[in-house]
Amino acid sequence: MIALRWALGCIFALCFSITTAFAQDAAPAEENTTGAAVDTIVELLSNPEVATELAQRLGGVVVEGAEDATDSAEDAPATTISIGRSIALTTSEVAMQTAETVERYWIGLSQLPRVFTRAANAVDGNLLMDVLKSLGIVIVVTYGVYLSLKFLARGLHDRIGRIATNYGFSITLLLLLGSLAIDAVIVALAAAGGYAATIYLSSDGVLDVTKSLYLNAFVVVQISKIVARAILAPRVPALRLTRLPDNAAAILSGWLVRSIMVVGYGHLLAVPIINRGVSILTGNAVGTLLSIIVVLYAIFMLLRYRKRATNYLFNEPDNRTRFRDRVGGLLWIPILLYLLGLLAVVATRPAGVLLPLLQTTGIIVAAAAIASLIVRILSDVISSGISLPDSATERFPLLEARLNGVIPRALMIIRLLVVAGVIAVVLDLTGIADISGWITSDRGLRVLGIVATVTIIVIFTLAIWIVFSSWVEYRLNPNFGSVPTARERTLLSLLRNAFAIALLAITAMIVLSELGLNIGPLIASAGVLGLAIGFGAQKMVQDVITGVFIQFENAINVGDVISVGGITGAVEKLTVRSVSIRDLHGVFHIIPFSSVDLVSNYMREFSYFVCDMGVAYREDISEGKQAMFDAFDELKASEAGMNILGEFEWFGLNTFGDSAIVLRARIKTLPGQQWGIGRAYNEIIKRLFDERGIEIPFPHQTIYFGEDKNGNAPPLHLRSASEDEAPLPEPTLVVEEVPAAGDDEDRVTDGKKAMPSPDGD
């Protein structure tokens, strides 16, 4: 629907200038002489020798006049004209040309009665009978063969339409082309039958002019009808290129078919026969009358169906706006103005002017239709996207996303170029701009060559980038080929970034060179700029240099767990300038290499889990040692045992703590597995210590009241809060929490030592 509206607007808004272009070419034929004199002149001009001699003489006069004008222009002094005078002269010239055009049209319109009278005189009974005798059998044969074959092919067309309902637009287009090919074959067979009948009935086996005119007109008319039916497809809606309803397609198809038959048989058959049988002026009058009838018929159809067409094109419920309603209600006005201008041209110009106008309009309509078709196909591809097979997606996971990021944008550019091409065709055909002349000129060819070269370079660059990125993804994909190591992942990521920068720089230089720029000074300037940046951005240079040496030494790879700059986490991204780390809490850190003084990598060859196990002083060391060995044996027998590289390394009693003795041991693991192994081992050792009654010290306190040398604790003296013998409150102690070891006495909040209660608690 959008493509159809765009095509209609392009055709009728821009083609309106055709009327003016043809109107300004020449004035209508003024009949200031008698009919006999004009006929004599026409007959003289029909002689090729006379026409050639006249053209040579007129050419000499024109050349001499042009030379004289050139000499006088060269001798005349150059004068400057002010802006105001230039505007006044331009306005005056436009007004004079407009007045002359109106006068010519008025003269042509005033001569229409004479044209109609001459056209009426063309109805000659004898001539009509001669034509019917000459063409009767040929007409019967051609149309007999044509209608018979059309009747036989109707079922085939219906079957093609039923098949098209089950497929998309591309298959439907191919089926439509097949249907058109069938119609074209039918026309060719009918024309061949007509030629065969003509030659068979001819006494000397020669095809006369009248029969040849009819057969040529028959072929042109039928081919034109095929093109009209290809666009509208009134009988087979499934093959219709436009989204018109069936009734509208039938109405438009009927109007086009009738107009084609009148114009085709009238100008290609009737007018030439009248020119030969009556006179050229009479034939021109008949041609003018037929052209007027066709244009008036088009105006009648426009005025009759304008509301229905507007409602169909612009009254979509989902896209209705006030602006669209107003524009849609006025769309028929420029079309009517175009038809009125066309009517004025065909009424005041010679009879043959309609065919060039229709040819120009037909080319514009065909260009708009083809452009609409291309735009529709591109829009469908853009909306649906690019889908790759599952096997390709498994090998290249990001290839489909990358193609969908590039191809739709390229198709959008192509769609804009198609629209620009149609506009250029319209401007060239209407005479508004000499596009074809500019294209064939040296400048135009050079510009088009540059555009084509740059386009090829950009496409080739994108193809190289997509292929290289896909290869990197394939190498990084662990499901195919060898599993990449961390070093390979790091180097391939850096290589992809470096390749992208180099490819972009090379492409930019080539494109600038194709555009005509001298890239030598540009490269030198880039070198100087690089030195300036190097001095001005020393920190960045330090980042790059440090990053290069870090990569040479293989200190960091993607996926490693490292500590740099006081931050510990997993490496997610590595460039020449910085390293990106995500810590245990999910925070993403970007650390430039210039701030890195020390790199601690936990992922090189192997790792250790060091266990410092604290037990109480009262426990037997041998029991704790045996429990730790038993915990290792149980750990090694579990699923985590595959990550253990060696036997349990016992170091012994490591330190004496404040409340515990520390037993140290170590487990050798795969790199990066030490934390998981440690958590699993701690879980097992806690369970075994609990089962065997081995105390694991923890922060606690013991309240000590003190005792004498005989082991007796002193009494706790309490005083009643009142003189009445009220019940004594329960004693409350608020004690500061202190570490379990190293304190001989407890401290209370009031600074006094706690005493035992009277009942000995």
Give the uncertain stretches in residue-range form. Answer: 1-37, 60-67, 69-78, 732-761
Q: For the terminal residues, how far apart are their CA atoms?
A: 98 Å
Fraction of residues in H or I helices: 55-70%
- What does the overall shape look like? elongated
Number of DSSP helical runs: 23
Count every beta strand, where a strand is a DSSP E run of 2 or more residues. Answer: 8
- Rg computed from alpha carbons, rounded to a whole number of angstroms: 49 Å
The whole-number mean of residue pLDDT values reads: 74
Q: What class do helices, strands and sheet pairing give?
A: alpha+beta
Strand residue content:
5-15%
Strand order of the biggest β-sheet = 4-3-2-1-5
* Biggest β-sheet strands, sense, barrel: 5 strands, antiparallel
Region (Disordered): 714-761
Domain Mechanosensitive ion channel transmembrane helices 2/3: 498-538
Signal peptide: 1-23
Keywords: Cell membrane, Membrane, Signal, Transmembrane, Transmembrane helix
What can you see in these coordinates?
With 761 residues, the protein is α+β, with helices and mostly antiparallel strands. Among the domains are: 122-351, no CATH class; 545-601, Roll (SH3 type barrels), CATH 2.30.30.60; 607-692, Alpha-Beta Plaits (2-Layer Sandwich), CATH 3.30.70.100; 715-761, no CATH class. The chain contains 23 helices and eight strands. The protein has helices at residues 2-14, 17-23, 35-46, 48-75, 83-110, 112-120, 125-164, 169-201, 209-232, 246-277, 280-314, 322-330, 332-348, 354-384, 390-395, 399-430, 435-440, 442-476, 486-514, 519-536, 538-552, 621-637, 674-692, and strands at 561-564, 567-574, 578-582, 588-592, 599-601, 607-615, 649-656, 661-669. Strands 4-3-2-1-5 form a five-stranded antiparallel beta sheet. A three-stranded antiparallel beta sheet has the order 6-8-7. A hairpin with a 2-residue loop joins strand 1 and strand 2 (567-574). It starts with a helix and ends in a 69-residue tail after the last helix.
